[in-house]
Amino acid sequence: MCRTAFFIASISVAASLLLPAAGAAQCRLCSATPGISGAEEAGIPVEIEVESTLRFDRLVQSGAGTGTATLAPDGTKAVAGSLGHFAGAGLVGSAVIRGEPGRLLRIDMPALVELYSLSGARAVVDKIVTDLPAAPRLDSAGRLSFHFGGRLQVSGEGEGDYRGDLPITAEYL
Asked: What is the CATH architecture of 5-21+46-172?
């Protein structure tokens, strides 16, 4: 007998911003204004705005066991294992970083995010990838947009709505 379960997995994104961390204590002591780093003195801190969250929408499980659903930054979808169908929209995440024009950035995202349903069932999103260039830089308007995706891993009977947080950290280099 084939059992079908629907999954709705989403990830809310917790955006955080950091000003230069390396040597920050020394810079704060040497700064013309105590407690303010060079980037803050310029008046343009790094800001992150999440435009859309990563959402796997509905997945159909065609049997017992583990399965994966992959959603790439370009919107490409794939399923494997016990997941037989990727129904619904499935949306990649997108974010915009704003700050000082032309500045190089370091953008960090976790390698793995745990998702939980209301019943306590667990799923994992790993292989989180972006379409960022190797050396991300804010454009002449002080803006950088990017998309991100990942691979959702489910096992057993995990019917439900799964949620978790994916923190994004950006800082000037």
From this structure: Sandwich (2.60)
Q: Are strands 160-172 and 5-17 parallel, antiparallel or unpaired?
A: parallel
Euclidean distance between CA atoms 21 and 19, whole angstroms: 6
For 27-46, write each residue's pLDDT tens digit: 333 344 344 344 444 568 99
Nearest of 66, 51, 59, 122 to residue 87 by alpha carbon: 59
Say if residues 125 and 151 touch (Cβ distance below 8 Å): yes
Give me the numbers of helices (H) and strands (E) for the chain, helices first please.
2, 12
Nearest-angstrom CA–CA distance, 20 and 49 = 19
Distance (Å) of CA 8 to CA 82, 86, 125: 15, 10, 13
Sign of the four-CA dihedral 74, 79, 85, 88: negative
Residue 59 is which amino acid? L
- Distance (Å, whole) CA 51 – CA 94: 5
Q: Is the pTM of this model over 0.85?
A: no
